[in-house]
Every structure is written in C-alpha cells, then in structure tokens.
Write a structure and sequence with these properties.
Strand content: under 5%
Radius of gyration: 27 Å
Largest sheet: none
Structural class: mainly alpha
Helix content: 40-55%
Length: 71
C-alpha cells in the first residue's frame, strides 16, 4: 500500500472523498497538536543534575580502564 497526499479544493473535498472511499482508499484525518499540548509534554521531560550524571561518568571511566587479558 502507498501513501498519497493530495491538495483538494474546499468545494470538491466531499466529492473526492466519496470517490476514493468507493475505490477502497483509507482516508486518515490529520491530527493537529496544539502548542499547549506540546508544552505540557515538554514539561514532563526530566532534568538531570551534574550529580545524577556522575554515575555514568564513573562507569565510563571504569569501562575505559579495563584491559584485555593476554593469553
């Protein structure tokens, strides 16, 4: 199945949708997100302090200090 985006004049929208539905085309409605919804999602993003990141840095340094064993 392919996705197709077309621009239809406002006065022909219903006619074109009717024809396409008759041909078995699935018509998806556009979902518009408001800026307030977007801002609400951004507010839920966690913020990490430098202290929170220390564990990652310590783990990275410990991993970098590992040496492969020689046989």
């Amino acid at each position: 199945m392919q996705r197709l985006t077309i621009n239809i004049p406002n006065n022909k929208t219903d006619l074109v949708k009717q024809i396409l539905k008759g041909l078995g085309v699935n018509i998806e409605k556009e979902t518009m997100t408001s800026t307030s919804d977007y801002r609400a999602k951004l507010k839920k993003v966690s913020v990490w302090s430098e202290n929170d990141l220390k564990g990652f840095e310590e783990g990275k340094n410990a991993f970098d200090s590992l040496q492969p064993q020689q046989w």
